[in-house]
Amino acid sequence: MNRLAHWLLAFGVLYGSSLQAAEAERCELITLADVGWTDITMTTAVARLVLTDLGYRTQVKRLSLPETYQALAHGNVDVFLGNWMPAQAQLVDPHLQSGRIEKLQTNLPTVRYTLAVLEPAYKAGLQDFADIHRFKDELGGQIFGIEPGNEGNGMVKTMIRENVFGLRDFTLVESSEKGMLNHVERAQQMGRSAVFLGWEPHPMNDRLKMFYLSGGDKYFGPNYGAAQVNTVARGGFTNDCPNLAQLFRNMTFTIAAENQLMSSVLEGNTNRRRVAKKWMNKNPEMVNSWLVGVNKRSE
Questions:
Q1: Beta carbons of 77 and 51 less than 8 angstroms apart
Q2: Is pTM beyond 0.70 here?
Q3: Do 77 and 235 touch, CB atoms closer than 8 A?
Q4: CA–CA separation, 274 vs 62, rounded Å?
Q5: How far does Cα 34 stand from its chain's mean position?
Q6: Among 134, 77, 85, residue whose Cα is nearest residue 106
Q7: Are residues 241 and 212 part of one domain?
Q8: Which CATH number covers residue 259?
Q9: Is it the case that residue 20 has pLDDT exceeding 60?
Q10: Pick from 226, 251, 278: which residue ends a domain?
Q11: 142 and 92 in one domain?
């Protein structure tokens, strides 16, 4: 019997509960969305391990952010652990208001997402969104984003299109989380600067000499893009799958936990399942807290 199974027994996770009987048959297979960010990929990997030990089957769909919300709204995906707010408000709010998507929990209450800059330009005076245009030559007229369709990319594109902060002559470079980080790390090694989408939790905050820019409140929110991450589900999920809804309401993380999960992957460990299991075995108290009031699925 593995350690997670011991935890389940310790918390009275029993077969045949009335709550389990009330679950719809469609809850046997849970589909989670993954947009490819390391933090969401790893929290999703952890969730899959917990669900498997509880007797559920799982699958993951790799989707862009807009595709994720469309899939949730149409019931083609059950749960997404990466609803960053307020940055994603434009994508998700209409569906929340209509009831086609429901919020289950804030799984990480204090995060950050906005534009950041490397140390050389920051020390030279690039400390606010309004400063970026003055450093066009040093930056090569480029701002580095992540995958196409990401809401942060969209906000930068709007600023460029509408010449907000004098950014008309800039270009947004879209690639991926890994591609963006590779470019920024090379720039740091060469003593150059770069403006890019930055967020925490993420090991980039330790690996890069980076500073978040002020002045982007209208686009990324106040306090240097302070935000929260929510777990959202398709509309009707709580009614259909009350046992699972309880699990996802219990499932919260910390910045330290997510940094630990991401660091191993970014350091080259490609077996995400193994990384997730190792982390869970080292953090039984957190896993235990997720299982309170949750029942194991009947065979």
A1: no
A2: yes
A3: no
A4: 19
A5: 9
A6: 85
A7: no
A8: 3.40.190.10
A9: no
A10: 226
A11: no
